[in-house]
């Protein structure tokens, strides 16, 4: 199954021009992961045919309302739908308190298994990726962003896949299970005579694992180039165009060309821009400014699905 992201909301603070606040669903291996949950996220999932019940992990970057006001409603909908499947939510402190107030304070209680993992900045290595959740054939890593309040970026990535064994190799050498396992790891095959058969003659290399990094909200933060090096697709906020770079600084946000610089520095294959200020109706200039720096830029249009 290919890995992909569906954009549910790509605007900043308020909902205008038909755009909603932040939310997106990443499909990686067999996992469906929701990243951020601004107001309206669950209705967008209905609109775009996302099966809400399949989401098993929710990643929240920070507690500004445009990233989290949809969460109490979604959790309550799960309760009303009789959800039984476990759900894990990751987010910065004090996400537990936020949910306690919003659910407990309104008389809503959750019966399904809900695990809330509060991430403290102390738990995240400075200028490095920190693995926070291990999933089957995939993992989730966290990294620091720079915003007015604690804000966490996430990278979701496929794990390295095994080498694919060539049929001719099996037919010719009749290897044992243990020997096949070694070849699947990329090792050479040694005959009893001591002759070494190179791995390339026994197997085909696996496809490179795909990865997706989500950077919103953040000041332009050059260390991200190193932290995210080799990530295949980067989503980076571009709240403003370059003409408002000073405003972006002031408000701990980035511009389109700054997002382009991060993608270029990280040697990514693709950049998706989002978190647009409400002042912009036409988003084409974001594309142009980022493309002056980095070649493969996409605009996070709601409802669009991007391969990652
Ligand atoms: Zn925001």
Protein traits:
alpha/beta; Metallo-beta-lactamase, Chain A; 2 domains
Give the strand line-up of the largest sheet.
Answer: 6-5-4-3-2-1-18
Mean pLDDT score, rounded?
94
- The CATH architecture category of the largest domain equals 4-Layer Sandwich
Number of helices: 11
> What coarse outline follows from CA principal-axis ratios?
globular
Which structural category do the helix and sheet elements fall into?
alpha/beta
Straight-line N-to-C gap: 12 Å
Q: How many beta-strand elements?
A: 18
Ligands: zinc ion
The CATH topology of the largest domain = Metallo-beta-lactamase, Chain A
Question: Compute the gyration radius: what is it?
Answer: 22 Å
Helical content band: 25-40%
Please describe what this structure looks like.
By secondary structure, the chain is of the alpha/beta class. 26% of the residues lie in helices and 28% in strands. A seven-stranded mixed β-sheet has the order 6-5-4-3-2-1-18. The protein has a seven-stranded mixed β-sheet with strand order 7-8-9-14-15-16-17, covered by helices on one side. The longest helix is centred in the first third of the chain and has 10 residues, at 71-80. 41% of the residues are buried. Zinc ion is lined by residues 12, 22, 64, 66-67, 217, 275.
């Amino acid at each position: 199954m290919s890995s992909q992201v569906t954009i549910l909301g790509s605007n900043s603070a308020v909902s205008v021009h038909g755009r909603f606040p932040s939310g997106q669903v990443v499909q990686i291996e067999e996992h469906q992961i929701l990243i951020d949950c601004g107001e309206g996220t669950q209705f967008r999932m209905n609109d775009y045919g996302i099966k809400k019940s399949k989401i098993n992990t929710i990643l929240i970057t920070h507690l500004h309302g445009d990233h989290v006001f949809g969460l109490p409603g979604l959790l309550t909908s799960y309760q009303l739908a009789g959800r039984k499947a476990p759900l894990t939510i990751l987010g910065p402190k004090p996400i537990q308190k936020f949910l306690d107030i919003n659910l407990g304070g309104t008389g809503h209680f959750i019966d399904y298994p809900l695990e809330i993992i509060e991430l403290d900045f102390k738990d995240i290595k400075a200028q490095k990726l920190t693995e926070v959740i291990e999933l089957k054939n995939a993992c989730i890593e966290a990294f620091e962003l720079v915003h007015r309040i604690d804000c966490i970026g996430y990278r979701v990535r496929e794990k390295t896949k095994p080498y694919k064994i060539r049929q001719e190799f099996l037919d010719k050498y009749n290897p044992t299970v243990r020997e096949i396992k070694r070849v699947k790891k990329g090792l050479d095959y040694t005959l009893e005579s001591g002759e070494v058969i190179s791995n390339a003659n026994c197997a085909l290399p696996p496809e490179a694992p795909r990865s997706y990094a989500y950077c919103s909200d953040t000041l332009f933060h050059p260390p991200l180039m190193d932290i995210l090096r080799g990530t295949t697709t980067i989503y980076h906020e571009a709240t403003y165009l370059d003409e408002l770079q000073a405003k972006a600084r002031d408000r701990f946000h980035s511009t389109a060309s700054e997002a382009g610089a991060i993608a270029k520095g990280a040697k990514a294959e693709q950049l998706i821009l989002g978190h647009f200020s409400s002042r912009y109706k036409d988003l084409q200039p974001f594309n142009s400014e980022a493309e002056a720096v980095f070649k493969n830029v996409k605009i996070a249009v709601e409802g669009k699905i991007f391969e990652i």
